[in-house]
Amino acid sequence: MLEISGLHAGYGAVSVLHGVDFTLHQGAFLGLLGANNAGKSTIINCLSGVVRPTSGHIRFEGRELTGLAPHKITDMGLIQVPEGRLIFPQMSVLDNLKLGGGTKRAIAKRSDEMERVFALFPRLSERHTQMAGTMSGGEQQMLAIGRGLMGQPKVLMLDEPSLGLSPLFSQIIFAALKKLHEDGLTILCVEQNLNLTLAYSTSGVVLERGVIAVEGSGPELRDHPITRRAYLGL
């Protein structure tokens, strides 16, 4: 469904990715793992068009994405839930969700998607008139995911969904992602929390200094020496 080959990218004169290759199959829940500054967020920002690769290819359902504007990539169904949530704090929960359903492919089914989001996160339904900025961090993460779902993603990409959350809210968020995956959604999750991600994902890729160091199933990665080195420096 999504194929990344020879991906190089960075910021100005600083090179971050050095020839990344991996494939995301339809129906997968792939954890993109690694320590700080490994290049995880750079990959997901390249996929969403926020960062332009310096070389390499990104193909989504056979179509080349490299160089496309972010709004065109979103309208194709490759949707990112950004790190730090980036909800609109002075707008209501409902208005934040409506914005997520504003793409060409999603607007006709916005009411149906709203019901789906409220079923997944009942708290958003209960607080639909509340200003988003007054909600807790965990509630805001629910809202950020809900806003992404409103765009009817074919692939939902999440950047550090447990960042800054309590263990309880982290479990709630990942349980919701598991439900979405069981319902058929393809998920790419960038995350530092190794154990939590491997507990829910079908497979994982460990990034180390801008290259793929190892990939495999959860049990294969959990105690792999390269994973231990990437996270613990061992």
Give an account of the 3D structure:
The structure is a single chain. With 234 residues, this protein is α/β, with parallel strands linked by helices. It has a single domain, classed as Rossmann fold (3-Layer(aba) Sandwich). Helix content is 37%, strand content 26%. It contains 10 helices and 10 strands. It has helices at residues 40-47, 70-75, 93-100, 110-120, 122-126, 137-149, 167-182, 194-200, 218-222, 225-232, and strands spanning 2-11, 14-24, 29-33, 55-60, 63-64, 78-81, 155-159, 186-191, 203-208, 211-216. The protein has a 6-stranded mixed beta sheet with strand order 6-7-8-3-9-10, sandwiched between helices. It has a 4-stranded antiparallel beta sheet with strand order 2-1-4-5, with helices on one face. Strand 1 and strand 2 form a beta hairpin. It is globular and about 45 Å long. The termini are far apart.
Mind telling me which CATH architecture this is? Answer: 3-Layer(aba) Sandwich
Q: What share of residues is helical?
A: 25-40%
How far apart the termini lie comes to 35 Å
Most strands sheet? 6 strands, mixed
Number of domains: 1
Give the DSSP E fraction (strand runs of 2 or more residues). Answer: 25-35%
Care to count the β-strands? 10
Helices and strands, in order, run as EEEHEEHEHHHHEHEHEEHH
Question: What do we call the CATH topology?
Answer: Rossmann fold
Q: Pick out the low-confidence regions.
A: none
- How big is the Rg? 17 Å
Order of neighbouring strands in the sheet with most strands: 6-7-8-3-9-10
Mean pLDDT: 91
